[in-house]
Amino acid sequence: MWTGRFSQATADLVLKYGESISYDWKLYKHDIAGSIAHARAQLKAGMLTPEEFAAIESGLKSILADIEAGNFEWSIKLEDVHMNIESELTRRIGAPGAKLHTARSRNDQVATDTRLYCRAEIDSTLALLEDMQRALVAKAEEYAEVRIPGYTHLQRAQPVTIGHHLLAYVEMLGRDVTRLQDCRRRLNISPLGSGAIAGSTINLDRVGIAEELGFDAVSENSMDAIADRDYIMETLFCLSVIGTHLSRMSEDLVLWSSAEFGFCTLSDAHTTGSSLMPQKKNPDVSELTRGKSGRLYGNLVSVMVAVKGLPLTYNRDLQEDKEPLFDSFETIALALRVNAEMVAAMRINEDKCAAAVSDPLLLATDLADYLVRKGVPFRHAHELVGKAVAVAVGSATPLNQLTLEQFRAISPEYGEDVHAVFNLDRAFELRTNPGAPNPANTARRIAYWKSLLS
Question: By CB neighbour count within 10 A (0-12 exposed, 13-18 middle, 19+ buried), where does 55 fall?
Answer without folding.
Answer: buried
